[in-house]
Amino acid sequence: MRVHVADHPLITHKLTVLRDKNTASATFRALTEELVTLLAYEATRNVRVNEVTIETPVATTTGVALSEPRPLVVPILRAGLGMLEGMVKLVPTAEVGFLGMVRNEETLEPSTYAERLPDDLSDRQCFVLDPMLATGGSLGAAIDFLFKRGAIDVTAICLLAAPEGVAALEKRTAGRDVTLVLGALDEKLNELGYIIPGLGDAGDRLYGTV
Ligand SMILES: O=P(O)(O)OC[C@H]1O[C@H](OP(=O)(O)OP(=O)(O)O)[C@H](O)[C@@H]1O
Ligand SMILES: O=c1cc[nH]c(=O)[nH]1
Ligand SMILES: [Mg+2]
């Protein structure tokens, strides 16, 4: 598994505002979208393209176009939905599939309550969006799901991750083509499975629930 942790003052600045408990939902949503667009630039570094020939007003030249099949973007509901607009701004022709997952806050086990993905993902590049990688249970299950359907490679974009979750994902995806792009790698998980220092519950903060 390749892990890329962003190292850019603009990303760190936006994450600092996001972490602040006094940041309101509307600002939180706007910043999440901006952060995803910045992280998506790195996450799409190996997006597949093919050469094309075009005419400029003054000459013939070659360039590239995104290859078929189109990339598939998969936000993990609910919190991942807050990352979707930022991603499709950068890759407007991507197809979007959905996975609804929720973690049991006592056992920390994820369960899947919704799935709307193409049946056959053979030969597809997939980009999974979830702001928080805590124990890694939710993202691990989502990645398993995509490979079972035939995906060839999966890139996950997370705003924050805990080292425990990254290690669990590394073990679970051994031998697979998986890339993890993170806004920051935090210190640890607390006894309730929350990322420290983190930003709290991303879904609650995005959608104003408590
Ligand atoms: O790495 P894990 O330990 O599995 O935890 C991370 C998961 O927890 C959050 O979702 P949550 O279950 O709170 O659902 P929500 O998006 O509906 O709030 C988050 O968006 C991840 O999906
Ligand atoms: O810190 C955490 C851990 C899991 N889910 C969240 O939204 N936040
Ligand atoms: Mg939540």
Question: How would you sum up this structure, described in words?
Answer:
- The chain has helices at 9-19, 25-43, 84-90, 137-148, 163-172, 202-207, and strands at 2-5, 49-55, 60-66, 72-77, 95-96, 98-103, 110-116, 125-129, 132-133, 153-161, 178-185, 188-189, 195-196.
- With 210 residues, it is an alpha/beta fold.
- The chain has a single domain, classed as Rossmann fold.
- The strands form three sheets. Strands 1, 4, 5, 6, 7, 8, 9, 10 and 11 form a nine-stranded mixed beta sheet that branches.
- A hairpin with a 4-residue loop joins strand 2 (49-55) and strand 3 (60-66).
- Helix 1 runs antiparallel to helix 2 and helix 2 runs parallel beside helix 3 (84-90).
- The longest helix has 19 residues, at 25-43.
- It is globular and about 60 Å long.
- The model has no long low-confidence stretch (mean pLDDT 97).
- It binds 1-O-pyrophosphono-5-O-phosphono-alpha-D-ribofuranose, uracil and magnesium ion.
- Residues 79, 201, 203-204 line the site of magnesium ion.
The gross shape turns out to be globular
| Cα separation of the termini | 35 Å
Number of strands: 13
Instruction: Give the percentage of residues in beta strands.
Output: 25-35%
The CATH architecture designation is 3-Layer(aba) Sandwich
Main beta sheet strand tally, sense and closure: 9 strands, mixed
Structural class: alpha/beta
Average pLDDT across residues? 97
The number of distinct structural domains comes to 1
CATH class descriptor:
Alpha Beta
Number of helices: 6
The bound ligands are: 1-O-pyrophosphono-5-O-phosphono-alpha-D-ribofuranose, uracil, magnesium ion
Radius of gyration: 17 Å
Helix and strand run: EHHEEEHEEEEEHEHEEEH
Give the low-confidence spans: none
Helix content: 25-40%
CATH topology: Rossmann fold
